[in-house]
Amino acid sequence: MSPQGYTEDRLVEQPAIELFAKLGWETVSASEESFGPSGTLGRETRSEVVIVPNLRAALERLNSALPADAINSAFDALVRDRSAMSLAAVNQEIWDLSTDGVTVSVADQERGGLKRGGRHR
Prior knowledge:
By secondary structure, the chain is α+β, with helices and mostly antiparallel strands. It has four helices and two strands, in the order H-H-H-H-E-E.
């Protein structure tokens, strides 16, 4: 392979896309992405890491028995600003929240106040 062939796209991105496709994931090239509510992926800007509509839909699907307040709390915990953290710490925290769940508090309709729930994904 010539030195020009050693690109991130060829050595990393394309093999990863192929692997995800083999695993049944839907893949999309975002190199020509349009932004905004009717944009390609639903991101407002290129700097947005999270595809908000997809995350919210997944939280609602995985936690359909929970009230909207719990879903909103979990969403907020997942997308909070982590720009002051190291990338390793951010990755670990998101991994932990994604695999162990997010502890949320919701309004206690029977007794008033807040009821702290278990971890929810």
